[in-house]
Amino acid sequence: MPKVLLAEDDTIMVSLLKTLLKMEGYLVVAVDADADVPAAVRSENPDVLLLDVYLSRQDGLAILDTLRGDAATRTISVVMTSGMNLREECLRRGATEFLLKPYMPDDLVSTLKRVTSPA
């Protein structure tokens, strides 16, 4: 079962995503929005990180840069999310995929299936 690590600062969104993704057969781990996300990625070893661009006290793009600069986390699939259309910026900096909020649950699930399926 694919493992999804959530880095999202909206607690209601985290709760909804956990429920949805568990129903879809994913193992879901949520990390506190103020936590060391790269360290959580290294310890949890998820198949995909669902990362909000704007966390309460952190910059998702800076986290992405850290992940891509570390050999241990360089290849992890990262799906960035934001209420602002930052698709080009996120993809240019190494995100695997980008979802514009609010997104439909089906869009999230199809994106996760795409990035967690073996090539």
Annotate the secondary structure layout.
Layout: E1 3-7, H1 11-23, E2 27-31, H2 37-44, E3 48-52, H3 60-68, E4 77-82, H4 87-92, E5 97-100, H5 105-116
Parallel strand pairs: 1-2, 1-3, 3-4, 4-5
How would you describe the overall organization of this protein?
By secondary structure, the protein is α/β, with parallel strands linked by helices. The chain has one domain: Rossmann fold (3-Layer(aba) Sandwich), CATH 3.40.50.2300. Helix content is 40%, strand content 21%. It contains 5 helices and 5 strands; from the N terminus they run E-H-E-H-E-H-E-H-E-H. The chain has a 5-stranded parallel sheet, sandwiched between helices. The protein is globular. The two termini are 16 Å apart. The mean pLDDT is 94.
Compose a concise summary of this entry.
The protein is built from five helices and five strands, in the order βαβαβαβαβα. With 119 residues, the chain is an alpha/beta fold. The chain has one domain: Rossmann fold (3-Layer(aba) Sandwich).
Terminal CA distance reads: 16 Å
- CATH top level label: Alpha Beta
Outline: globular
SSE series: EHEHEHEHEH
Spatial strand sequence of the major β-sheet: 2-1-3-4-5
Category from helices, strands and their pairing:
alpha/beta
Work out the helix count.
5
Beta-strand residue fraction: 15-25%
| CATH fold type | Rossmann fold
Proportion of helical residues: 40-55%
C-alpha Rg, in Å? Answer: 13 Å
Domains, number? 1
Q: Any guess at the CATH architecture?
A: 3-Layer(aba) Sandwich
Instruction: Write down the overall mean pLDDT.
Output: 94
* Parts with pLDDT < 50 across at least 5 consecutive residues: none
Summarize the main sheet. 5 strands, parallel
Quick one: how many beta strands?
Answer: 5
Q: Spell out the CATH superfamily.
A: Response regulator
